[in-house]
Amino acid sequence: MTRLHAMIAGQVGDDADPADVEVPVGIETDRGPWVQAPLAAGYPVPAVSPPQTARYRERLSVSGAQALRSGRRHQGKK
Fold first, then answer.
1. I need a labelling partner for 16 at 20 to 30 A (CA). Which of 4, 6, 33, 78 fits?
2. pTM for the whole thing?
3. Alpha helices, DSSP H only, in 1-78?
4. Which span out of 4-8, 29-33, 49-53 was modeled with the highest average pLDDT?
5. In which band, very low, low, confident or very high, does the pLDDT at 34 lie, cut at 50, 70 and 90?
6. 37 pLDDT exceeds 60?
7. What is the DSSP letter of 20?
8. Residue 71: CB partners within 8 Å, gap ≥ 6?
């Protein structure tokens, strides 16, 4: 947790008021030390569904097959 606090402080800045800073922590599990530690430190920990996370990653990623097809199309149209 000390390293997490240091990383957040580095992003927020030293002059920020801790009462004004809110950092939600999304974790794909609802129990265990990875959830309890941020909760104990005062971070809000919303539930994140693993299937929802997988769908989100799929939407943001670029398919290699699509990239190849579009690259071939552009190469052929000179």
1. 33
2. 0.49
3. 2-12, 33-40, 50-60, 64-76
4. 49-53
5. confident
6. yes
7. G
8. none
Confidence at residue 64, expressed as pLDDT on a 0 to 100 scale: 61
Using alpha carbons, list the distances in angstroms from residue 32 to 23, 38, 45, 49, 76. Answer: 20, 11, 12, 16, 54
**8 Å CB contact between 27 and 35:** yes
| Bridge partners for 27 per DSSP | 47
Q: Give the mean model confidence (pLDDT) for residues 55-63.
A: 81
By the 8 A CB rule, do 7 and 25 touch? no
In contact, 21 and 42? CB cutoff 8 Å: no
| Structure token digits, residue 2 | 């000390």
The C-alpha atoms of residue 63 and residue 54 are separated, in whole angstroms, by 14
Structure-token pair, residue 75: 């190469």
